Each structure stands twice: as C-alpha cells, then as structure tokens.
Amino acid sequence: MVIGSELELLNDHEEEGDHPETTVNRKKIKFFSNKKAKSKPQLHLPSSPTTLLHYTCIHSSAAPIPEKITQEFAFPDGLTYKRIDPNASLSDVNTILFGPYTKRNNDSFIFTFNDETKENSPMVYGVCVMQPRLVMGGKYATKRCYCLLTRVPHFDLHFKVLFLLLSAQRIARMPVDGCPGHDSHGYDTFEFHKQVFQKYSLVNLNEIVEYQEFSVCEHLPPVAFKFPESLLLRNKESNWIESRKNSIKATSKWALPCLFSMLSLEKIIKVVSLALNEQSVIVVSAKYGVCSSAVLGLAYLLRPLFWCCPIIPILPSSMSTMLAAPCPLFVGITENALRNADVTPSPRSFIIRLDDGGSIEEVDGDGDGDGNENGDLDGLFRSQKLSSKMIEASKALCREGEPLYNPTLTQLKMAERLADGVKRMVVRVLEDTKTAIGNEEFKKTQLYSLHVRNSI
Question: Can you spell out the DSSP letters for 239-293?
C-alpha cells in the first residue's frame, strides 16, 4: 500500500488517470483569510493521510487490516508539511529528490496488527518505509509511506525490496547530460509500483528451496534470498501465541543493534526486570524506527519467557487511549503523540525516553514502583555480576542516542552475544526466584502463569 497526502494527486506532473484507485476531494484544500485583520490568506493542508495505491496483502489472499487503521499506523503522528523557501539553496530539494533514503533510517519501521475479535486471527505485519515528497508545485515537502502488509515475518527481505523500489525512483530522477531526469523507464509511477508489488506477492516464501532471486528492475541487481527455516513454523501456527513467537524471533537481528545503541546494558536490564513484574513499558522517541526496534528488541530479551500482553511497536496518536489500558503493555510512541494524548498512562507504567539518554520515569500511581508480586526481581538482577565481555560489547554498541540502523556483521554478532547474556541472567533470576519463595508458591505467581508456560 502507498499512503500519503492527497496533495500528491494534484501535482502538475501527474497525468489524469494515473491513480484510478483514488479520488481527490479538492474542496478540502482551501485558502482562508481574515478580512478584518487584513491578514494574508493561509493554506489549510490536509492532515489525514489517504491511500494513493492499494494492492492485495503480500503473501495472503486478502488485505486483513481496515484501510483507515493502516493509514493511522503508517503515519503515527499524521501528515506534516515543511515550507520550502524559494530563496534558499537547492540542498533541501536535492535531498528530497535524491536521498539518502535508500537505506534504513528513522522512518523505517514495523507495526503489527492482530484482530482480537476473531478467534485465531493471524498476525499481520506492516513493513513501512517513508520517503520525502514535494507537493504544491514544490512549495511544500511532506512524506509518502510505502507499506507492505504481510503474514510472513521475513523483514530483512521485505525492507530490501522496498529500498530497491526507492532506488529505482532515484534512477528516474537522476540528471542526464545536465538535463533533469525524465523517467523514461516509468520507475517513478504508481503503475511501476503496482507491477513490483504484484510480482513480489507471487514469490514463494513457504518452502525451503534453493536461493531465489527477486528483481525490481533491469537497472538494479536482484535480491538473492532463502526463506529462514525457523520461520517455517508459521505454517503450523494454531493461535496468536505461535504467531507472536515467530515475529519476535524474526525481528531480533533487525531490532537488537538499534536497541543496544540507544540504551546502556544497565538500563536494559532494569527495563527487563520491570517487564517481568508485569508493569507497562512505554518507549518514547521522536524516531519511528527507534520506537519499533526498541519495543521488539526488548520483547526478545525476555527469553526464555514470553510476554503475553499487548505488544505495540508503534502506537498512532489516534489510538493513544490504549495507554490507559488496565493490562500491562509493551508499547512504542512518539514524544509528540504522548504529549498530546487524551489520557494519562495507567499506574504501574514506566516511560523510557530514548532520546534523553534512556531516562526512566514512573507514572504517578499508588504502587511502590518496582512491584513485588514475583519477589525482588530488580534486586536479583542487580546482584548478578555482568561479564566483562557483556560490558565491552555494550560500550562498543552504545552510541549516546545515535541509532545503529545498519550494523556491520561484527556489530550484529556483538548484539546477539549481548542478548544471549541477558537470557542467561533471566534464567538465573527465575531459578533464584523459585528457590526464594518455593516451587509451589512460584507456580502461583504471574511470572509463572503468564510467561513460563509459554516460554520461547
């Protein structure tokens, strides 16, 4: 699905009939003036995104998410616009036209959707990449979101396909012999996008086969891939638990380097102990990519335990009332959405501000903060000695607020070793808790009933 501002459909270069799926309500775009104050007319730009191109859900028989919900997840803070100064240099315009946006960045993220009103409803993943666009004859800049809806958690491949699509657009815009690009191959058209999506939906991702290749266009190298064996379990999924386990496993390599680059090891362990006490964890960042990576990465770090409550990698501002839910949450949200939320997060919630060095703030409530239903888990974590290798790896990855989106192979292995170290700590805490309160009492705790029986 391609989602963005309906102003894109009014661009002078768009030919009538290019977008049969979408009609434009031109009445929404008006000039308003205050005659008494003799003020200049102000342009009111549409703030709600619209679907520019719709296609069938990738690797599924039908799109399982209502279109309006998809639009809200694709633009968690709604549409925004930036005025282009005609007297300024062309650097801003060139950045919009030519990138860099063909690699993972702040606007590359994942959202998940599960229709809880339907029994055994499959997990659907939204793989999103945003791209800056010029509208209103180049007077304003906004963003367009390319969103792959899929049931297959092969995120590395999905993102590669989207970035190749954007690379093809870049080719279409590159000047030739000093003249502006004319897109002679049609790479910057919705018709080309539709052909790519339809072709990709036919790729077989359900069986272990030799390496396959997927080509976006003749001017770019194909993507070679093989479906990970660990994800083939999705064919045997009988409920949402198995579906979520697969998604958590599949996102680990994508999420962990970014998480470890934003939070120190000590603070990560603190958040893990909060989660094991069934307390809501609200991850806040201005960057969509950081929010979704941190939430999915933290959920993975609970291994061998399993978070059974809602996991929302990125929460749209229109759904901010979810923050007051009585059940524990693992949720990512932007600073702007949290500031403008209609509700206050429920007591026993902790806000983790990743753009502020990972500060941890408790929402006012009547609880004691750390909780004691499962024993002093925070104290048990603090009592464990961190290995020198874990400390060194954490220091090497932590970048003081600068997210690591495109790690090297060495950095990826460091993140995996750190995750394994955290897992060993969780296992030791489980054993210590069982010893401290007794096996029978341990089985009565939420830690046992909600997590251990569904361990990863």
Answer: SHHHHHHHHHHHHHHHHHHHHHHHS-HHHHHHHHHHHHTT-EEEEE-S-HHHHHH
Give me 120's structure tokens: 């055994």
**ω into 407 cis (within 30 of 0):** no
Q: Per-residue DSSP letters for 396-452?
A: HH--TT----S--HHHHHHHHHHHHHHHHHHHHHHHHHHHHH-HHHHHTSHIIIIIG
Residue 221 burial (CB count, 10 A): 10
Beta strands 359-362 and 349-353, pairing class: antiparallel
CB-side exposure of 189: number of CA atoms within 13 Å? 17
**169 vs 132: CA distance, rounded Å:** 12
Express each pLDDT in 58-113 by its tens digit: 666 544 678 888 999 999 998 989 888 877 777 777 777 777 777 888 999 999 88
Range in 102-106, 298-302, 320-324, 343-347 with the lowest mean pLDDT: 343-347
Which residue is listed with tokens 């030791």?
428
Tell me: the pLDDT tens digits for 181-213? 566 778 888 888 888 888 888 777 666 566 778
Contacts of residue 344, Cβ cutoff 8 Å, sequence gap at least 6? 323, 324, 363
